[in-house]
């Protein structure tokens, strides 16, 4: 496939004929901006950025790519953390920035049909305007796009109650790698007519086709959300706290982070330490408390945790402003550590295995990174940990990543030991591609490759991501 040579003037003219001359960018700044995601591992080198405004235009671009054997990289909000949206080999980048509208709303179904370029926060605000709620939420909600969320099956901070993006997708319109338009499931909750093809595209990282529209389920708005931040003495205290609260209260979130993460957020100066006691680790939990007995039960559990010495100190939100401020302690971590070029691991196991898993991973980290700052945080209530190694100033990016990759095998061996995932919610892309076999069997990978051939026989859709053919 010709993915390295620059596009000819004739091909650029054909693309212009599809989307209009003003919807094509080839200048260096645009190529760098739209050819990358949030990762720093690969240099973006796309050939052109194209901004379609309809599913029909996306189809025509894909058909053109098939005719001329050109590669396509779909682009959303470019907030990905696995290089799944990086165009590093002269690809045509199809940006969905201009496809960001609500197409229809179905009040009786609590469902909205949207274009895939809609920003997550835009959907959340639309749901609020209808008196409803879209619960999939994360730090990048203000810039991530729904198409990218679907392509990576994004998770975030509310998974313990609401699940992943997959749980909220009722239907999709996709342009396959062959250039066919499929309208899948059409928003129905009950549809027992064979294969649920939408689930192949959710989490497919754009390797089978491009999601252009989606039917998204909405929920009732939560009532009287309360947030606690608790300081804990060690890893061993975290899971007992989770079990104590979960056995009596329905949690909407249970997050975890270390003192290193806390300090990086505080250094930004936007929020204050929640209490005077400096603790090795912290948990943030959220729950609905529309009735006084729920709040009484929460305080009872907190006191029990203090008596058991699982908690050293804590704070309960007293206002909506404080709810927001406490959440920033967790949600601002990624932004706060970004200047340190973190090497990220996004790993998960069953909640049952979390205590033993953390001990094993911590031992690996202590042995192999004794001089590096290690930033722990994650959605520990659903078994998902983010292990971030921060780059020292005296190491180059390449030297630092090389040192980290040496230890990857030990980390992923441990993930495999507990039947876990090398990528809980960030996707595989290019950064995790060499390690896919730690989570997926050889037979599974062969079936995945066979599906790729069915939907994308000419391998035009996001080649080099997830696996190599």
From TrEMBL:
PROSITE patterns: FAD_PCMH
Keywords: FAD, Flavoprotein, Metal-binding, Oxidoreductase, Zinc
One Pfam family recorded for the sequence: FAD-oxidase_C
Residue span, FAD-binding PCMH-type domain: 42-221
Signal peptide from the UniProt entry: none
GO biological process: respiratory electron transport chain
Catalysis: reaction(s): (R)-2-hydroxyglutarate + A = 2-oxoglutarate + AH2
EC annotation from Swiss-Prot or TrEMBL: 1.1.99.39
InterPro entries: FAD-bd_oxidored_4_C (IPR004113), FAD-bd_PCMH (IPR016166), FAD-bd_PCMH-like_sf (IPR036318), FAD-bd_PCMH_sub1 (IPR016167), FAD-bd_PCMH_sub2 (IPR016169), FAD-linked_Oxase-like_C (IPR016164), FAD-oxidored/transferase_4 (IPR051264), Oxid_FAD_bind_N (IPR006094)
Quaternary state and interactors: Homodimer.
Protein name: D-2-hydroxyglutarate dehydrogenase
Organism: Acinetobacter boissieri
């Amino acid at each position: 496939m010709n993915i390295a040579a620059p596009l000819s003037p004739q091909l650029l003219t054909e693309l212009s004929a599809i989307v209009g001359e003003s919807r094509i960018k080839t200048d260096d700044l645009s190529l760098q901006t739209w050819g990358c995601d949030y990762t720093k591992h690969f240099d973006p080198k796309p050939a052109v950025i194209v901004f379609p405004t309809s599913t029909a235009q996306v189809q025509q671009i894909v058909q053109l790519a098939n005719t001329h054997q050109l590669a396509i990289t779909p682009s959303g909000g470019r907030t990905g953390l696995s290089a799944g949206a990086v165009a590093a080999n002269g690809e045509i980048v199809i940006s969905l920035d201009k496809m960001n509208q609500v197409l229809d709303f179905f009040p009786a179904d609590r469902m909205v049909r949207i274009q895939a370029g809609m920003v997550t926060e835009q959907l959340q605000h639309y749901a609020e305007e209808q008196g409803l709620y879209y619960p999939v939420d994360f730090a990048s909600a203000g810039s991530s796009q729904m198409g990218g969320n679907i392509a990576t099956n994004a998770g975030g901070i509310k998974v313990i109650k609401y699940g992943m993006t997959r749980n909220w997708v009722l239907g999709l319109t996709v342009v396959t790698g062959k250039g066919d338009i499929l309208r899948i499931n059409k928003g129905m909750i009950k549809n027992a007519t064979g294969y649920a093809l939408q689930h192949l595209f959710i989490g497919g990282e754009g390797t089978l086709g491009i999601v252009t529209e989606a039917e998204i389920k909405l929920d009732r708005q939560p009532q009287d959300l309360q947030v606690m931040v608790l300081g804990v003495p060690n890893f061993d205290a975290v899971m007992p706290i989770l079990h104590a609260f979960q056995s009596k209260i329905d949690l909407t979130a249970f997050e975890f982070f270390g003192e290193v993460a806390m300090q990086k957020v505080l250094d930004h100066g936007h929020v204050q330490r929640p209490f005077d006691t400096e603790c090795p680790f912290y948990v943030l939990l959220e729950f609905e408390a529309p009735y006084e007995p729920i709040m009484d039960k929460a305080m009872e559990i907190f006191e029990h945790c203090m008596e058991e010495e699982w908690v050293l100190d804590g704070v309960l939100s007293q206002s909506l402003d404080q709810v927001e401020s406490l959440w920033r302690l967790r949600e601002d971590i990624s932004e706060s550590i970004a200047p340190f070029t973190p090497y990220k691991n996004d790993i998960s196991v069953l909640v049952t295995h979390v205590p033993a898993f953390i001990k094993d991973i911590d031992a690996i980290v202590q042995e192999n990174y004794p001089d590096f700052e290690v930033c722990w945080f994650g959605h520990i209530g659903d078994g998902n940990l983010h292990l971030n190694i921060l780059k020292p100033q005296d190491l180059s990016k390449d030297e630092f990543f090389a040192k980290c990759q040496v230890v990857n095998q030990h980390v992923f061996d441990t993930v495999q030991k507990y039947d876990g995932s090398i990528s809980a919610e960030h996707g595989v892309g290019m950064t995790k591609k060499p390690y896919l076999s730690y989570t997926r069997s050889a037979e599974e990978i062969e079936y995945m490759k066979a599906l790729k051939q069915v939907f994308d026989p000419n391998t035009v859709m996001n080649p080099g991501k997830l696996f190599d053919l």
